[in-house]
Amino acid sequence: MNANTFGSLLRLTTFGESHGPAIGGVLDGCPAGLPLSEADLQQGLDRRRPGQGGLASTARDEPDRARILSGVFEGVTTGTPIAFVIENTDQRSRDYSAIKDIFRPGHADYTYQAKYGVRDYRGGGRASARETAARVAGGEVARLILARGGVKVYSYTTEMGDVPAQCMDPLNAHTRPFYAPDDYVVDIWTDRVELVRSEGDSIGGVVCVTATGMPAGLGEPVFDKLDARLAYALMGVGAVKGVEIGAGFSAARNYGSKNNDPITPRGFASNRAGGMLGGISSGQDIVVRAAVKPIPSVAKEQLTTTTSGEETTVRVGGRHDACAIPRINPVLEAMVCLTLADFWLLSGRRI
Amino acid sequence: MNANTFGSLLRLTTFGESHGPAIGGVLDGCPAGLPLSEADLQQGLDRRRPGQGGLASTARDEPDRARILSGVFEGVTTGTPIAFVIENTDQRSRDYSAIKDIFRPGHADYTYQAKYGVRDYRGGGRASARETAARVAGGEVARLILARGGVKVYSYTTEMGDVPAQCMDPLNAHTRPFYAPDDYVVDIWTDRVELVRSEGDSIGGVVCVTATGMPAGLGEPVFDKLDARLAYALMGVGAVKGVEIGAGFSAARNYGSKNNDPITPRGFASNRAGGMLGGISSGQDIVVRAAVKPIPSVAKEQLTTTTSGEETTVRVGGRHDACAIPRINPVLEAMVCLTLADFWLLSGRRI
Amino acid sequence: MNANTFGSLLRLTTFGESHGPAIGGVLDGCPAGLPLSEADLQQGLDRRRPGQGGLASTARDEPDRARILSGVFEGVTTGTPIAFVIENTDQRSRDYSAIKDIFRPGHADYTYQAKYGVRDYRGGGRASARETAARVAGGEVARLILARGGVKVYSYTTEMGDVPAQCMDPLNAHTRPFYAPDDYVVDIWTDRVELVRSEGDSIGGVVCVTATGMPAGLGEPVFDKLDARLAYALMGVGAVKGVEIGAGFSAARNYGSKNNDPITPRGFASNRAGGMLGGISSGQDIVVRAAVKPIPSVAKEQLTTTTSGEETTVRVGGRHDACAIPRINPVLEAMVCLTLADFWLLSGRRI
Amino acid sequence: MNANTFGSLLRLTTFGESHGPAIGGVLDGCPAGLPLSEADLQQGLDRRRPGQGGLASTARDEPDRARILSGVFEGVTTGTPIAFVIENTDQRSRDYSAIKDIFRPGHADYTYQAKYGVRDYRGGGRASARETAARVAGGEVARLILARGGVKVYSYTTEMGDVPAQCMDPLNAHTRPFYAPDDYVVDIWTDRVELVRSEGDSIGGVVCVTATGMPAGLGEPVFDKLDARLAYALMGVGAVKGVEIGAGFSAARNYGSKNNDPITPRGFASNRAGGMLGGISSGQDIVVRAAVKPIPSVAKEQLTTTTSGEETTVRVGGRHDACAIPRINPVLEAMVCLTLADFWLLSGRRI
């Protein structure tokens, strides 16, 4: 059982509630000898922080500074656990007292109450997306491990609301709003988000995470297939409701003769498999997609009950994003980085 | 690391190659006092065996009799590991010698070779779907554990090829060919499969697995969310390329105000979340879907290489199914049963 | 693999180096609803802190205040990870620069260098006994879990140097210097420690940890026997070189007819088994003993080499204890508490 | 949680009861490319089988033939799980019906009943020493992995009853009765065992397991120290009540200045640490000792109760050993082999 720990040889344990003193994590199993500083973690945190998404993003301005407490000596990892803490400086607990006795629809209020009997209702507590900052910090270390082996992980948004992009330039998506994979879709998505926000509503989207430079041979059949662990990694992010590998659901609508990737002396002739066969990487690019649900916090009135079971309605106002994209992108990348770096180490490869 | 072991408190370890002496499994963590016989395992195995799928299914007739070696005394489980073995009686190794030196497209031949350096090429070896028989046997024990708590798991096929069903009567799907959820689609799917088979090709489909009678409170945030573990479970089945929870990818195309399930004093007013929020079961039905790729073994000529890298073509004839559905359905059910029974025990519930 | 994480359902991950910014831990799996405050953790830390052992103890005065960062809301655990941090306020790195290029005999300098290639040489870094403060803090939570079930864990010292105690009043040992189990031995041990310290040397001893109020039925055969997990727990404390359950090594010198504990209608007539049979608790008191080696840091001159392999000598002066007892006692208790509380939860018992 | 599974990357799961259909195991994580046959497993099983110990040993003659079911193809491991089964051919259940309703002192009858509510009373069921045959079979594979790296594991008996040996020739102990480490003690131990057996009693002893050819750097601080994992491994063998590393309990009675192993340019000048420091191997020989309790099955009359709580007496006659030594020696070696091979793989070393 892992619960708040992710990984086998490279294990990230996260902790913290949205409005508690701090959030953070402990990354165990990072090889010794990797140059690492707080600035490395900050890169990912800055990409995930509020305000990055332009209109889609919350107004809450949390600095999100990770302080490294252990595992690094003279600028280099020592092989011991790397602990880091991010203080919750902008807590504003008062914003949330109104929802103390209400189950917000689409949130985990009801189920946390059912499971634990008590619950930190402030800003979602542990179920807040704020927890993912610790994943991003840990994921940046995994990214550095992979970089040593020539593996590069990036993401791009293929859909927002129900507006797909053309994905003509995915490698530079991180330079555009919403991690848009082409220039043309940016304005359309901006308009879409503005409209939705003005209506007090929210939208979702689809994010593709890709890894290049992968060696063949990573993955552990039968249950710890590379596909299975990636699905576990991405579906463990709160807003994700679907995961696809390679052709995904469209593979289910294809013929076997067309879905198979032909093998040639120069390598595979296509990559409908998404970079893995039988749970083991094939040396092609890893391609996974995650369906991101619309943020459940909407200003529109919603039907719900109080914690004591009485009918009521709720409007979740305040400083909420209209879409989890693009702030969720670094989180999804982090989960892929952590998964791939774990398999990298499991394969006996070093850094 | 788990590799060939699945689960936390209820752990199934499977072993065996398609054409080795036997396949089987060890189920550890089953509570004592559960009535269990070989006939219980056989129920699942019979549903998974060749010939069940009518036209879709292979001609290979493997009896698949599970023999229990341990963990049961006087008809009742004792709390010790339940080992079971299924002998491989119909091996016919000669059928496979032709593909010894070839990488079959869409199969794991290439990646197993890359990872392990050696490979049991007979019938796919460990990567054969035959391995899933052990999952089914173990899953039947999990099903009995869940039954004690009033949880029932069943599946139905929502799509074959690109032909969707109407899903008017999913509860009785197991009584129809292809686990069809309504009577009308059966003939259409039968024709579809016949045509594809006659063309030497194959198709895939989508299977929905549902659990009724679920208590609220199962699941372990943040990484071991119920959603995450179900995705891991289903994506760990060879042919699965996508997994959705509840509304899945369509949630990504919806508005927050519409995707949230309203809460009423009588319970949730809808189940777009698929029975879980924040990684914890809500007490509603669990709803997960798996995209099943078309079987890669097709009689049509495929471009590939020999193991020494020379260009060649291959036709994979023989006793292959034209679609993994319906034989994959009991496997997907088994994976859901194992996952839910594991969380059942993790919650401290007894049988 | 666990490395810096201990436990199955109740999992303590510790982090931190002796002279890094902080040490601490994350305790995952603690049930919700347990009243908990920083004062609870402090109780154990205060018992472990320097100065508790009278003459045996180091002069370094570290406040060791644990700050809880998560998992507690309104004074009660929420079921989410409990993270705590203990800042390293009294670091004095200058004390240790002299040993930067030397392998101290009996310490982990050589092996950390061999394993990791780099090493935080300040005060032993991760291998410092200071790390155990985090175990004590986590162990106090486990102690509270056990207390809910009526289980009480305490320790007493049965030997110091080679001077055994009479163990006439072990329950009150925590009120005496050295956790002495009778009044008579205190002066003798005090003299012994004074003498050894004056000679620039150190001694070890034997500590017995006992649990009362145990239910029968805890433990998980065959590999996770209660005995095995306790041995793992105690041998994982740096200074421990031997572990015994019940009669221990003396059982090996006894007859079967005399070593067996007779069973009577009133219960077991003796407890040579130490409270467990076949890896499962019998309902009797748990009795385990740990052999604690003399502290390797001695002021006497020791033969060693530099990190580049040249012969040299070293005197490890400074603020070191002359004996790990009594500061190790709360650590050993913590490890037993964590082990028993883990099995408590594994048995499906609640708090 | 592991229960019936041992190890991290190299994982042995065992199953089976003394008088069920079969016992066996599944070894997962063995690297591909290792030549392996059933004869390799048989070597260990033959050393463990009844009759090896001369007078000390039971008359039961179980062939103990391991059949490999998977994981080996054309004489070489494939990286997939290696399952093996040992049929229980000589069951004689009738011998045990007399003890069906009695708790045998020193056995696990009482605690299994307390934990599981049901119990296979035939010959101890799962708690029978027979289970260890599966450990020996799995351990032989681990031994072959270690042999590839030049590591050799052997054992010798240092004490039987309370008669110590001189340990002049431990390397050849396996060629002598009782794994005696010198010629002189053989006759004395033989007389001792004969006498004890004639009295209807039993004795225990102490076994030392040693590994030569170890590299420095194996082990995973802080909880998975090499010492901790070895203690866990050995204390998980039913009859073991104490474990020592290196000087063990005698270290607790020594001075720090004398207990430290001096380091010289030629290596360590002594090995009181038993081959590890700070939980990491030092490159010296691994030295661990296990205290083996006298076999609880004695023909002398013992006080006990029936399962319904009535006072009674029991004589456990039949085909029992008078001492677990030497049959336990291969089991202890197996546990050390499995532990070291696991750390070998965890270090990223290959075979």
Automatic annotation (TrEMBL), chains A, B, C, D:
A single Gene Ontology biological process assigned to it is: aromatic amino acid family biosynthetic process
Q: Which GO terms describe its molecular function?
A: chorismate synthase activity; FMN binding
Q: Pathway, according to UniProt?
A: Metabolic intermediate biosynthesis; chorismate biosynthesis; chorismate from D-erythrose 4-phosphate and phosphoenolpyruvate: step 7/7
Q: Which stretch is the leader sequence? A: none
Show the GO cellular component annotation of the record: cytosol
Q: What is its EC number?
A: 4.2.3.5
- Name the chemical reaction catalysed here: 5-O-(1-carboxyvinyl)-3-phosphoshikimate = chorismate + phosphate
Task: Report the protein name in the record.
Answer: Chorismate synthase
Organism the protein comes from: Fundidesulfovibrio magnetotacticus
